[in-house]
Specification:
Layout: E1 2-6, H1 9-19, E2 23-27, E3 33-34, E4 42-43, E5 49-50, E6 53-54, H2 59-71, E7 74-77, H3 83-98, E8 107-109, H4 117-124, H5 132-159, H6 168-186, E9 191-200, E10 206-214, E11 217-218, H7 227-239, E12 241-254, H8 262-273, H9 277-289, E13 291-293, E14 296-298, E15 306-310, H10 313-326, E16 349-351, H11 362-365, H12 371-386, E17 392-405, E18 408-421, H13 425-431, E19 457-467, H14 476-486, H15 494-503, E20 507-510, E21 513-516, H16 518-530, H17 537-551, H18 557-576, H19 580-595, E22 616-621, E23 624-629, E24 638-640, E25 655-659, E26 666-672, E27 675-680, E28 687-690, H20 702-709, E29 713-717, E30 724-730, E31 733-738, E32 741-744, H21 748-753, H22 756-768, E33 783-787, E34 793-799, E35 802-807, E36 810-813, H23 825-871
Helix pairs in contact: 3-5, 5-17, 5-18, 6-15, 6-16, 8-12, 8-14, 9-12, 12-13, 16-19
Length: about 850
Amino acid sequence: MDLVIVESPAKAKTINKYLGSNYKVLASMGHVRDLPSKDGSVDPDNEFAMLWQNDAGKSKTINEIARSVKEADRVILATDPDREGEAISWHVLEILKQKKVLKDKPVQRVVFNAITKAAVLDAMDNPRAIDAPLVDAYLARRALDYLVGFTLSPVLWRKLPGSRSAGRVQSVALRLVCEREQEIEAFVPVAYWTLIAHLRNGSNAPFEARLTGYDGQKLGRHDLTDADQAASIKAMLEAADIAVQSVEAKPVRRNPQAPFTTSTLQQDASSRLGMSPSVTMRLAQRLYEGVEIDGETVGLITYMRTDGVQMAPEAIRATRQLIGDSYGERYLPKDARMYSSKAKNAQEAHEAIRPTDLMRTPDEVKRYLDGDQAKLYQLIWARTVASQMAASVSERTTVELVANGGGHEANLRATGSVITFDGFLAAYDTAAGTSGKDGDSDDDRRLPPISEREKITREKIDATEKFTEPPPRFSEASLVKRMEELGIGRPSTYAATLAVLQDREYISIDKRRIYASDKGRLVTAFLEAFFKRYVEYDFTASLEEELDQISAGERDWRDVLRAFWTAFSSAVNDISELRIAEVIDALNELLGPHIFPDKGDGKDPRACPACSDGQLSLKISRYGAFIGCSNYPECNYTRQLGAGDGDGEAQSGPIVLGEDVESREQVTLRDGRFGPYVQLGEGQKPKRASLPKGWAKDTMDLERALRLLSLPRLVGQHPESGKDIQAGIGRYGPFVLHDGMYANLDSVDEVFDVGLNRAVAVLAEKAANGGRGGRRGAPAALKTLGDHPDGGAVTVHSGRYGPYVKHGKINATIPKDIEPEAVTMEQALELIAARAEKAGKKKAPAKRKAATKTAASKKKTTKAKAAPADAE
């Protein structure tokens, strides 16, 4: 029996069917070990030795693999055909060596680019050894990421409490986002005028022409900035004679794009389908691992982590055959199109992303897929077919017109185009469901027939004032594209890079646009001020090239690490000696336009609004950064970092809501480091209350503020204990409290009017649940996935701490890169199994501890009973 090791259960199940009973296929469930998250896991002083730790949640999996190796005649490592796949195989092999279960059994490495029977069997016939240079490249990347993270994060934490390193590549990606924010903030709109002539030809057909010159001077789109001149030219055109000067029509050929790579798939799926890179990669993984069609599980696409653009010869032949049969010979170029990768040293799987069988059309397979899977498959299928089709041909027409009047001459231009042969657009635009998106934006309109010296009549002249616009914020697609252009990171890491930045709250994504948070801008400013070299685009790209050289066997991985670490550790040592005041000065300088924006009223934007002569400055506390006054403690004005950008509301200081009639003190609305709050009076320790979730600042008045400040309020005495019941708002929302036990209320409003009977009932429900879990029990299921193999439903829920899957009493958190609506039964079973194993390990020591405690208690009791006799 031969043992085959792959990553996922789905892949194992499919391959097992292909190989038959002489093979046993097991899944490693991804990586089986990693560097532990503690100092010393990589030792630069000992040739960068790495301390690996087995994944605690994978012990059962590792043991099963080890047991199966003992029974096997041969071990075949069949993980994915990229660097990570090579690393997983290497880790599995190293663990098996440590367990001394291999003996003299042969170990082979096989790779296949698609999970089809033919591809798998062909791979089995062509085994190889583990690719050592590819493993070395993985080790170098892993060590680099660890050293940067665990060396830089402590420095950030000391100098900027609450911050930590985003990561080697992530920090550079974050800089891109922050720089775009700076460009937008620094942008000053400029007014300009456009003049459009609405005209008709000799056949009375309408068309439009744009002003391009006046009195011999060329005018670009933004060149006409004077309103008086625009009005003068408009008046001249309204009285001028307009004639056709020339008409030029020329064909424009447009070639199809190459088949998808990882990054281009992420970009197109984002712009065309609105899918994030993480969602795209999860769906692509499912298509790669396969679905069951007519009783057989087949992979629908080739491996999805690649920067190669070429296709296998047999795939090109099949594509051309389909084009000829389905679209006709006119759509088939004489020769096959050959593409080459722009990547300098592509180290992912080498073939482009394509369907494993083009005869499986989107219409035929969609009944086996969910909606999003079907859309992505359709996109991949269409791009693959289009890549081998003929170019599209358009006729682009340019009409130059001249207007004379009042001693002045103006030039006008009308443009238009019409597709004379759709070519590849027949497959890509229609099948991809995005007709027209690849067209020319300004020239898509058609012009009526126009000839030279033709009589032109004027309908009207429009003069419109417009304003230049700032550069757009990055979308996930445009950021991925920019990272690829700069050589930052590698395609397979782009989705993870964005996920890390979101998880650490350095960026947010709203309506598919990426925004840098204040925390992210603070970290970027710090790195630019004190570690500039390590967030420079050229440096990061050159380091990626060195890592690629390692994977090609051209560089020693330790030499690359040694050169990096020598300079980096020196920079860290230098910054460690900096005083906090020096850090604040540098950040004030770099972030000044953002945190102290000029309002344009001539006033100093850093002047404290609460005192006469204080200056606002960035301040650092144990909880993070905020804005405070230089006259502290005499002036205690503070506000959140970034609060009030744009409208200046937060910079106006405390807002007086009114006066409390009992204390005669002012009630104010303020901004603090943790959000808006209301405050009663001033003094050393004035009473404060944070605005609860859902309460907006602009809805606050004196009455609502006093109600908040009155909390916690006494509801009454419990009828059984006679002790007070209080109602208030805490970290987890509104509650009632009695004798140390909290019970949740349904809403914030209920805190202010809950009566004694209702409070007692809520507390009784909580007590009936053992004093745990609140009064509402488990949230309703978002969806039911099906029955667990051991019986009972597997459901998806949304909880206080995020989405999770549930089976019986086991709740397993759904990772952030998986949408709860998209989680599959297979994923749920893996999560539940891992959670159950983890819970079992925790339970065993607890049982032993309880048994020890019980034994000790019995011993103590025996001694206590014997005490009187001993005393006598």
